[in-house]
Amino acid sequence: MTGPETSPESARLSAGLRELKDRTGLSLVGLAAKTTFSKSSWDRYLKGGTLPPRPAIEELCRLAGEPEGRYLALRELAQSEWNDTRQKPAPAPVPPLSAPAPCGSTAVGHRGATVVAVLVSVSALVFGAVVLTLLLLPDRSGTAWPPTSPSATGPGCGGRACEGRDPVAMQCGPEPETLAEHVTATGASMQLRYSKGCGATWVRMWGTRIGDRVELRGRVARVANRAEADTYVHTPMTATRPGTVVRACFLPTKGARKECFRARVD
């Protein structure tokens, strides 16, 4: 199914799938060889041009060793958004202009409509010329307006600018380094992650219960509902320089003690 690329959920899904693909170390040809989907299909799925089927997500998660729940949930949201878009009524067609009155007729109303149409056309041309002039006219600093927007590729922040930000939203997650992993007494799994490009660390965990929390240098993520317990949560990022020792702690909702582990950022 094509067309879901306009959905924010679809964009998040394709970004997550690209991260999984990078973690496998496989090319598109390699993915095609190890799954039941072709190279061209994977190219569309990873670019967000086509909503991937559930089996494709399941196979990629298996290759990357990643729980599939979060990605399947994103797919369902993207599917729902796409369906809603398709169900929106199409805009009403613009009625055609009236045909010219026959010769010899005395359609006064038609002549009035023609005058109005001419005035509207002239006004539109004048307005367009003014807008074009303003767009091409440089401002006092000598820079053309509007300014060129920054590139949308690459990380969205770096260092202190990443403090408290979401690693997925800031595109810090495609190639993170896993500094350490820890499995708690309750069975929850945690990973301490570091992005060299963003200069920041964060922790993610899965296999949790509602109310479980994970903390990293004052940044906390809490499992708020069943959907998050079935997938995973991650803390906001904290700016981290190489050589820093970071400590993450798991705070269970009940029945177990606080557990901490640490790692050094190389």
TrEMBL record:
Keyword Iron: no
Segments traversing the membrane: 115-137
InterPro entries in alphabetical order: Cro/C1-type_HTH, DUF2690
Protein name: Helix-turn-helix domain-containing protein
Taxonomic lineage from the root: Bacteria, Bacillati, Actinomycetota, Actinomycetes, Kitasatosporales
Keywords, in A-Z order: Membrane, Transmembrane, Transmembrane helix
